[in-house]
Amino acid sequence: MTDEELIEGILNKNQATFKILVDKYQFLVLNTCNSFLHNKTFSEDVTQEVFIEVFLSIHKFKKEAKLSTWLYRISVNKSLNFIRDNKKNNLFKSIENFFLGEGNQELQISDNEHETSENEAIQKERIELLHKSINALSKNQKVAFTLHKIENLSYKQISEVMNLSLSSVEGLIHRAKINVQRGILSFYKKK
What we know:
About 80% of the residues lie in helices and about 0% in strands. The protein is an all-alpha fold. It is globular and about 60 Å long.
């Protein structure tokens, strides 16, 4: 089925067509969400939210853009909203725990930590550092950088998803690369 046929079927509330759309684009949406959330369970939850949003708002889809571009845009926005909301929830939980006296809970350490080889520990540290550096970027830099480096979208595709000019996307990605490098370098300078 073409994207146009999928859109028409969903507009007519055809559930079989919607299932075809989900099957066709589930991997794209899940990977995009996971690029931002770095957690399989959260990514799966947000992916479901994306497809619910698609089903409920397909009538808002402007047909001058590609369906995949629209799905990227919804996936990015839902992922960023999840991060924002999760930060708020964590802040409220921290404050609640502080005032209720639950802040002194013991940290659980898995036995697998002791079995992890030194190389695996170094690799894990590098990945965490990269994620921290990416998460420290401004919202637009983070979106552009993630879509380019992790989702392998071209600058042109990113400009369509973000609704920005090509030169703006180039600038965002350039500044993001510099800021990620600075974040990593400052970590190693502190060591």
